[in-house]
Amino acid sequence: MAKGSKHARQRFRKWINSYPEVSAWLEKYGDLEQQLDDNGGLVKIENFLPTFVAEGILEMLQGIDEKTWNLTAAGDDYVHNNIRHEFLSVKQGPPGLQDVFRVFTLLLPDSLFTFSAAKYCKAGHIVPHDDRAYTQVLMDDGSMQQCSRTIACIYYLTQGWIEADGGHLVDLEAPGGPQQHLPAFNSVVAFRIPRWHEVKPVTGDRPRYSIFGWFLEPGKLYELNTGEEAPPQQHSEAVHGAAEPEQQQQHAAAAVKQKRKKQLVAVK
Ligand SMILES: O=C(O)CCC(=O)C(=O)O
Ligand SMILES: [Fe+2]
């Protein structure tokens, strides 16, 4: 795609807003739950979206101005869970970003979810953690529903990323020992929660962009970290307990399942 070309941008926006096109494309990945069951709880999908769409999403993230990116703030999961981290994220951003999130929700169409965009600059990272968290979801009828994260999903927008750029996702529960995943452009990693993992510091000068989030299920499906628990291997010193079952209020629009297909159909 010619960078910045208006035509290319329109084409990408049209694609992500076309329910028939998006769902036909995603069909080839089959049932995500099944894939997870068949692959030990973690799946990696290369070339997840058409290249022009990935490039369009990257361009959208690059266009988000500095003021809009939040250093994960009070009330955020990472603060509650006291996980050491350093990266920028955004849930609202430009209107098209919600359209992008909707594409990922089609991987598990009947699930609640919360998605954000992330930008890790040089040294950006997250120390070992297992993603367990409760989330208060505002339902369509105005009621609040307590949910647990069940599946994590990360989509990388890291053009030309090489080993020397750092920012690897390390799966600390891989069967043969910790496994490093290079955050390859236009690839997705999804895994069942809980699963210990970390993000190694970005070492290059280019930002590591991603879309990340979680599928949610109603109820408290597990206990939260007590602070006593350590990840596999030798990383225990890095984790401080998540302790209190504090609940965050997530952006309501990100978690309303009923509307999704209708929205996609409406804007196609
Ligand atoms: O970006 C990644 O590779 C993983 C991010 C992550 O673990 C998280 O946001 O909890
Ligand atoms: Fe995580």
UniProtKB/TrEMBL annotation:
InterPro entries noted in UniProt: Oxoglu/Fe-dep_dioxygenase_dom, Pro_4_hyd_alph, Pro_4_hyd_alph_FE2OG_OXY, uS12_prolyl_hydroxylase
Establish whether keyword Oxidoreductase is in the entry: yes
Q: Where is this region: Disordered?
A: 226-258
**Looking at the keywords, is Ribonucleoprotein present?**
no
Under the heading Pfam families, the entry gives: 2OG-FeII_Oxy_3 (PF13640)
Q: Compositional bias (Low complexity) at which positions?
A: 247-256
Q: Could you list the residue ranges forming a coiled coil in this record? A: none
Cross-referenced PROSITE patterns, in alphabetical order?
FE2OG_OXY (PS51471)
**UniProt keyword annotations, A-Z:** Dioxygenase, Iron, Metal-binding, Oxidoreductase
Residues covered by the Fe2OG dioxygenase domain: 108-217
Identify the cofactor(s).
L-ascorbate
Q: What is this protein called?
A: Fe2OG dioxygenase domain-containing protein
Please name the source species: Tetradesmus obliquus
